[in-house]
Automatic annotation (TrEMBL), chain A:
GO molecular function: monoatomic cation transmembrane transporter activity
Record GO biological process: potassium ion transport
Record Pfam families: TrkA_C, TrkA_N
Ranges of residues in domain RCK C-terminal: 141-229
Protein name: Potassium transporter TrkA
UniProtKB/TrEMBL annotation, chain B:
Pfam families hit by this protein: Ion_trans, TrkA_N
PROSITE patterns: RCK_N
Domain RCK N-terminal span(s) in chain numbering: 287-404
Keyword Membrane tagged: yes
Organism this protein belongs to: Methylomonas rosea
Main localization of the protein described in the UniProt heading: membrane
Name of the protein in its database record: BK channel
Length: 234, 534
């Protein structure tokens, strides 16, 4: 179970929270506007009434302790920067996701210690551009990966003693064995960069590598289970 | 009998294809401001005019130049033909005849040929007395040599230049818009001139060495002084005359500055609409452009991408600051209200636009613009932005093809990022072309070597391409599993090796951009070479 603190209750945070699996995530919503906080409670979310300007209050809800991820979804950039800065000081490992309103604030948020910046307008602009340029591919993704159909992206980390350790990428045959498509591999020890599988057929997998796969959820579960099972053989 | 023949001719012309085509051709050439032919024609005519004036001036100095004579004759013929053609396309006489004839037939009256001619004549007079037609005639007249006095009309030939460029019309329009102010100023100036002329005349008439001997001298001096020219050929000699001069100079400064400010105001107001017209004129040259309504953050982002793609687009926004920003970035932009039918029509929604994006921050405007656009053009692609969830259906009802919700997408990405950061970065990298690896579709066209081929035979692995799936609306594939409904088509994810491709299918490939391009090129080449000669 992961703990997420969501600061700022608005359309964006509502969408984000609704997308998260309630069984995997413990979510707390914080908003300094009592009306919005009440609305969040009405929608069935756990809320906390604290002042984000005070470090003691932040500690009180568990930042620096059990909170793993922080969403800074306030409407104004200055508040998000302040919150990011305070939270980063309390917890070096915290995963901070912040939204940005004006593009010049993005750098400030990164400097304040945010892990991921989300610019809704930029994303929307890119998305519309995609709709114009590549309508087919855009439709597929909207209906499958981001939509209701059962086709998902997943990442699978290769654990120790897995049968995949030292296996060649070319030996995997995920598409015939599992009905999955392997898109790429990330070697965390070397870099965060994703290596697309098409160029890495002769590569040997090692422990800690992350496989990015695409497929139906049942197949993903089956594959994950097999990867962790050390007695499974190719 | 004659009447019958004329009516017959009129009906013949009405049904004659060549006649209609010829008329359309000359309309495009002479009057249709959207046509490219007219632009070339206008440029040629301007060139001819300038040449003809040069020859006429040359003629004044060199009495018997033969070359100039022939050239003049040729130009004259062109002018006369142009004049007649313009008269021809100005009205459709055969339509008048048919209308009158049918009216007479319906009312059981005699067909009155004289009445028809009178009507046609009135129409022709309308053309002949129109300002431009008069200028045309005046441009033809100076060539009539026996009447040397007509040479003075050479200047009118230069007026003809105005016909071929919009600048004169612009100047006149600007002045006309300030009619009231100019009139006030003119009346004031007249009083001033009158008072000053009479006063200086009274003071200076009897003075010794005075240059003013009659009222015209006084008037001449007043105008020269009023215009701040002051030649100095006539100077006031008496104290009274000098006081008048001081008074006139001070007053004339006011008049001139007032006049200048009126002109400047008129032109700066006019410039806005001129720029707009220029924007529209530039759009005329393009097909397949995109109209962006709203240049907020989303609009700016799209414009940036489209600009990189060298895709033509037009921005419409009501906020002057945003339009200024757009222009600074070199985009075509109009400061206007997109919910106005006229604005959209001028922007080319029915002519060259392929898509319209309604992406303002206000859902009310987005719905309204969507509705207007759909009403104006049934086949246009409309993408609209819904800022509130409840408005998505309204936008679809209004006729949008796609509705996008910025906050939903951003929220979705935030959620994806928390769950699977690596996969998320990977897919967003591919989707947004940030990596060298891209996802693209390749169409299986008719007679393509891919047609009727099994997926296993494509040898995609050798080409370093990954096949994600096939998009198809062909019912023959429905037996395969892993299909996902996407609009009217199906997406077959991870198809088996024995999946047989049919024409119309689309392969969704993942690979390097040039890898996919190379594959597409090879397929196309093989298709062309395998085509059997008929």
């Amino acid at each position: 179970m992961k703990n997420i603190a969501v600061f700022g209750y608005n359309r964006l945070s509502f969408e984000a929270i609704s997308r998260l699996d309630k069984e995997l995530y413990q979510i707390t919503v914080i908003d300094h506007d009592p009306i919005k906080a009440a609305l969040a409670r009405e929608n069935g979310f756990e809320t906390a009434n604290i002042d984000f300007r005070s470090d003691d209050d932040l500690k009180l809800i568990g930042i620096g302790a059990h909170i793993d991820t922080l969403f800074c979804f306030f409407d104004t950039d200055s508040e998000n920067v302040f919150l990011t800065l305070s939270a980063r000081a309390l917890d070096k490992e915290l995963n901070i996701v912040a939204i940005v309103d004006s593009p010049e604030s993005a750098e400030k948020l990164i400097a304040a210690g945010a892990n991921k910046i989300i610019d809704p307008y930029e994303i929307c602009g890119r998305k519309i551009h995609d709709m114009l340029k590549r309508p087919d591919i855009n439709d597929i993704f909207d209906h499958t990966v981001f939509g209701r159909h059962d086709l998902h992206l997943a990442e699978v980390t290769i654990p120790e003693n897995s049968y995949l350790e030292n296996a060649h990428v070319a030996q995997l045959h995920l598409s015939s064995q599992y009905n999955l498509i392997l898109i790429g591999i990330v070697n965390k020890q070397v870099s965060e960069q994703l290596h697309f599988v098409v160029e890495e057929f002769d590569r040997r997998l090692s422990v800690g590598d992350i496989l990015v796969i695409l497929g139906p959820s049942r197949e993903i579960r089956a594959f994950k289970k097999d990867v962790e099972n050390e007695f499974c053989k190719i | 009998m004659l009447a019958k023949l004329i009516v017959y001719c009129a009906y013949y012309l009405k049904s004659a294809d060549w006649y209609r085509k010829a008329k359309l051709f000359f309309y495009d050439l002479l009057e249709n401001s959207h046509s490219r032919k007219k632009k070339y024609f206008d440029a040629t005519m301007i060139g001819l005019l300038i040449l003809s004036v040069i020859f006429l001036i040359y003629d004044i100095e060199h009495e018997d130049s033969k070359m100039g004579g022939y050239f003049e004759l040729a130009i004259l013929m062109v002018f006369i033909v142009e004049y007649c053609l313009r008269g021809w396309i100005y009205s459709d006489t055969y339509k008048v005849i048919i209308e009158e004839y049918e009216k007479a037939l319906y009312l059981n009256l005699d067909f009155n040929l004289l009445g028809v001619f009178r009507k046609a004549f009135v129409r022709d007079m309308e053309y002949i007395t129109s300002p431009f037609a008069i200028i045309d005639i005046l441009a033809i007249l100076p060539s009539y040599r026996p009447l040397a006095i007509l040479r003075i009309f050479i200047i009118f030939r230069l007026f003809k230049l105005f016909r071929y460029s919009n600048s004169a019309k612009l100047f006149a329009d600007a002045l006309a818009s300030k009619r009231f102010e100019l009139m006030t100023l003119l009346i004031f100036t007249c009083f001033l001139v009158f008072i000053a002329s009479v006063s200086i005349y009274m003071f200076e008439y009897q003075a010794t060495n005075s240059g003013i001997h009659n009222l015209f001298d006084a008037f001449y001096w007043t105008i020269v002084t009023l215009a701040t020219v002051g030649f100095g050929d006539i100077t006031p000699q008496t104290t009274g005359g000098r006081w008048v001069t001081i008074f006139l100079i001070l007053a004339s400064l006011g008049v001139l500055s007032f006049f200048t400010s009126i002109l400047i105001a008129a032109f700066s107001e006019k410039m806005l609409s001129v720029r707009e017209t220029r924007t529209y004129a530039e759009l005329d040259r393009y097909d397949n452009f995109i109209i962006i309504c709203g240049f907020g953050r989303v609009g700016q982002e799209i414009a940036r991408h489209l600009h990189n793609d060298r895709q033509k687009f037009l921005i419409i926004d009501r906020v002057p600051a945003r339009i200024e920003l757009a222009k600074k970035r070199g985009y075509l932009a109009i400061e206007s209200d997109a919910s106005n039918n006229e604005v959209l029509i001028n922007a080319g929604i029915c002519r060259g636009a392929s898509a319209i994006l309604c992406i303002t921050g206000d859902d009310v405007i987005n719905v309204y613009v969507t509705l207007t656009s759909r009403h104006l053009n049934k086949n246009l692609r409309i993408i609209s932005r819904a800022n509130r969830h409840d408005n998505v259906n309204k936008l679809y009802q209004a006729g949008a093809d796609n509705v996008i919700r910025p906050f939903e997408i951003a929220g979705l990405l935030a959620a994806e990022f928390v769950g699977q950061p690596v996969a998320f970065e990977a897919i967003s990298g591919i989707l947004h072309n940030q990596t060298e690896t891209v996802m693209e579709s390749v169409l299986v066209s008719e007679k393509s070597p891919l047609d009727n081929q099994q997926i296993g035979q494509l040898d995609l692995q050798q080409r370093k391409l990954t096949l994600l799936g096939v998009i198809s609306d062909n019912p023959i594939h429905l037996k395969h599993k892993n299909k996902y409904q996407v609009k009217q088509q199906h997406f077959y994810f991870n198809p088996e090796v024995d999946f047989i491709l049919r024409h119309g299918d689309m392969l969704v490939l993942l690979g390097r951009k040039y890898g996919i391009d190379h594959f597409r090129d090879q397929v196309e080449q093989r298709r062309l070479f395998s085509r059997k000669p008929k």
